[in-house]
């Protein structure tokens, strides 16, 4: 009995050492913000960028809350989607707001598209694509031609109408998912697979709908994705589910070729890459609203100090599958200047109030009203001696003239997690440089009940590690610089 136990322990030890060997490589990808100067053909002013971000955040929050409500009634999602019949998401809750930013709610569902862009290579031989990185997306998809394979007059390679296109027939590793498969009929249902299946081997098709009637349509396939490892070698990830989108239209997708999905779901890129690289991924983001130039990094596998941290790493429980495929955390409260605010606990409760998620694709931090009001009251006192500023077309209530502004006057905001971990964001992450000489409190109100979101500006200059196998979220302050 004892011998067996020792044998088992030895096996575990050998296994974990081998495991570490195998995972000694990790992938580090550089991220560019969607609003980075080099990506914009026309340069935008800082308040235009802020308006764009707000607009985007509102649409995205609508999607997040919609998914949360859907998650509360799992039975509502048992029917598969017929082409063109999906119900659009209601825009009622944001109608006041969007009117204020003077923009139509054009892109509607927006697929939860995030803010950061990276490059990966797809197929065999590989073709390079610039993809939006999104913790809110389950699906990785690229601008692609599939049907071209059977037509004579289609381009053999390269761009179509100035856009990079993946030509499926030129890749020897492209494996369409058959529409008759369990994968298409059941597992990809949440990724909007269609019921149409003229022959069993017809590729499984999808249809993402937008409120304005535009859509992204295509077929699902397994493909090989090639990424560069930190040691300079390349790593090929096989059987990555991708969407081959042969039609898409969206104002948010200018200058990019698709989306890389980092949501927590079976077929997302994050899950696939993490499975092969130690079960975790991390990112470090710098402030894109300030003038500080710096890089953002996305790491699959363990961060072997490639992105350096400047303080201790704290851990809290990462709640997977609690709010759809988002990354949820158990917030217990918020303190400001050492004083715990009076926020009803229901706000943080997923089933009663909506809970809290960490999102790379939402810029500002979204708090539902019962949390938003006390937080604003507590911070605004510290900046009351500065002149209030109303930015044209920007519906933020708490902006002020920051001439002579002293950061140290702002009380420390701390997000307290139920397991005792504390996240202390940098002050510039909640009193944000919104325009020249103007700072704004970086929060957006949302209706209760609804999901609160820790946005990417609040997360900036921290390294966030999503440990999918250990159900842990690690965070440590960092300048997001590499060694
Ligand atoms: C829109 O604004 C009006 C007045 O400002 C308010 O009465 C109404 O409740 C608001 N609607 C929503 C959906 O917030
Ligand atoms: C695609 O990959 C999945 C594993 O992720 C596998 O179960 C499935 O059989 C593959 N399908 C095809 C058509 O290669
Ligand atoms: C930051 O980047 C911009 C544009 O890329 C450049 O003009 C500016 O000089 C840079 N600033 C610093 C401090 O490096
Ligand atoms: C802020 O105040 C200074 C001096 O009081 C003034 O010159 C400047 O124009 C103000 N800025 C804004 C954006 O109102």
TrEMBL record:
Residues 116-476 form the Peptidase A1 domain. Residues 1-19 form the signal peptide. One of its GO terms (biological process) is proteolysis. One of its GO terms (molecular function) is aspartic-type endopeptidase activity. InterPro entries: Aspartic_peptidase_A1, Aspartic_peptidase_AS, Pepsin-like_plant, PEPTIDASE_A1, Peptidase_aspartic_dom_sf, Plant_Aspart_Prot_A1, TAXi_C, TAXi_N. The keyword Methyltransferase does not apply. It comes from the Eukaryota. The active site is at residues 134, 359. Keywords: Aspartyl protease, Glycoprotein, Hydrolase, Protease, Signal. Gene3D superfamilies: Acid Proteases. Belongs to the peptidase A1 family. PANTHER family: ASPARTIC PROTEINASE NANA, CHLOROPLAST, OS07G0603500 PROTEIN-RELATED. This is Aspartic proteinase nepenthesin-1-like. It comes from Durio zibethinus.
